[in-house]
Design brief:
Helix content: 25-40%
Distance between the termini: 19 Å
Number of strands: 16
CATH superfamily of the largest domain: Uncharacterised protein PF07075, DUF1343
Largest sheet: 7 strands, mixed
Length: about 425
């Protein structure tokens, strides 16, 4: 996809194709200007970090949301990515003032501020983020705080009336990676729906999207709706989770077109072209920046018999299978059970594949790896499994690959849908 340089407006079609068409919004722009002039604020024994050179997450903009929580019974949707960076009170040593910057979990931070947290709700992979993809996560108690943890995965994806009883306000703070099949946005949908039905306000603490600089992929067809794809959006949606929440509301995607009482605590210093290295891995099998940039492309292999590196320390940075021909695929790896992959594909078997660990930041989905693996492999009849259509959001992609379409021919079929989607997306963007 064509990149548009800063200062080059390009044609509208170019901007739409690259996902950079942004509507003007006077109220939004005014809020952004006000955010730029926000001063450092003392909060108890910590200070809000407010360095204009850095991206400040919604969770770290304490003065924007702590007043909304005071005196309320709070429910929090959180996992291991829900962290804040705090600066301790400076100490004077040898005539010099020194301070320590440290990361704290949001739940620990709020408990330390004597706020009344009633329950913690955890998405796929659990509150501490160690469960396998698709693994049933049970309810429990957080050993650090004694708070009850309610799983929002498995059979209980949506908070029940009983689970929300007594809660005055909900907070959602989870790091997304910008792919439709990454299930945290599905959890967001169900939390918004439950809050709307029970009249509970929801605060979303926004976080950067590390894949927020582009949009790409086929648009999901609603007949293929599932927990790995709930909305008619492309594979790479190009929105922060706060922007996405606004789109869920604005497009009336909640049951019965319900509207959630939504407040987004915006990022500071972020644009959709910003690069952002996640301080905490968002799930066990996305361990670093390379895995995150490759994820929208390599996750399609999850709908085939090919391994995407689960059971190694190179998850979503390699792919392969025992049956791929060595003359074309000379990289080797052997999956074994590990954190986040108790039963990986080809456990204990030598796989031949490609090593993508040094691949640069991507600005479009790469279909060549998938097509080449399909062509090179003899197991064409059972190359795809039923999960592939759920990941793609359409039956067309599998059909196109089986019929011998090139990646360029396939990409052409996405463009009309991407243009329509980007026009819709533009209404909800908070950042340039």
């Amino acid at each position: 996809m064509k990149e548009t340089s800063e200062g080059d407006t390009g044609t509208l079609n170019d901007l739409i194709e690259t996902g950079k068409a942004v509507t003007k919004d006077a109220n939004r722009d005014k809020k952004a200007e006000e955010a730029e002039t926000t001063t450092t604020m003392e909060v108890g024994e910590v200070t809000e970090l407010n360095n204009d050179r850095d991206i400040v997450t919604g969770a770290n903009r304490f003065n924007q949301y702590l007043p909304l929580l005071k005196g309320k019974s709070i429910g929090i949707v959180a996992n291991q990515t829900s962290i804040v960076s705090v600066e301790s009170e400076p100490n004077t040593m040898d005539g010099r003032r020194t301070a320590t910057i440290e990361n704290m979990h949001l739940v620990d931070f709020l408990v330390g501020r004597q706020l009344n947290i009633q329950s913690v709700f955890a998405p796929e992979h659990g509150f501490r983020g160690t469960a396998d993809a698709g693994e049933m996560v049970k309810d429990g108690v957080d050993t650090a705080t004694g708070l009850p943890i309610i799983s929002l995965y498995g059979n209980n994806k949506k908070p029940s009336v009983a689970q929300l009883k007594g809660i005055d306000i909900m907070v959602f703070d989870i790091q997304d990676v910008g792919a439709r099949f990454y299930t945290y946005i599905s959890t967001l949908h169900y939390v918004m729906e439950a809050c709307a039905e029970q009249g509970i306000p929801l605060i979303v603490l926004d976080r950067p999207n590390p894949n927020g600089h582009y949009i790409d992929g086929p648009i999901l067809e609603l007949e293929h709706k599932s927990f790995v794809g709930m909305h008619p959006i492309p594979v790479v949606h190009g929105m922060t989770i706060g922007e996405y929440a606004q789109m869920i509301n604005g497009e009336k995607w909640l049951a019965n077109a319900a509207q959630c009482d939504l407040t987004v605590i915006e990022l500071k210093g972020y644009t959709h072209d910003s690069t952002y290295s996640l301080p905490v891995k968002p799930s066990p099998n996305l361990p670093n920046d390379v895995a995150i940039t490759l994820y929208p492309s390599l996750c399609f292999f999850e709908g085939t018999f090919i391994s995407a590196g689960r059971g190694t320390d190179m998850q979503f940075q390699v792919f392969g299978a025992p049956s791929l021909p060595e003359r074309f695929y000379d990289f080797e790896f052997t999956p074994q059970a590990n954190e986040g992959a108790k039963y990986p594909k080809f456990k204990g078997e030598l796989c031949h594949g490609k090593d993508l660990q040094n691949y640069p930041r991507m600005d479009q989905i790469n279909l060549e790896w998938l097509i080449e693996a399909f062509v090179a492999n003899d197991r064409k009849i059972d190359f795809f499994n039923d999960f592939f259509t759920k990941l793609a959001g359409t039956e067309k992609l599998q059909e196109q690959i089986e019929q011998g379409f090139t990646y360029r021919e396939i990409r052409k079929t996405w463009q009309a849908g991407l243009k329509d989607y980007n026009r819709m997306r533009g209404k909800y963007l908070l950042y340039e």
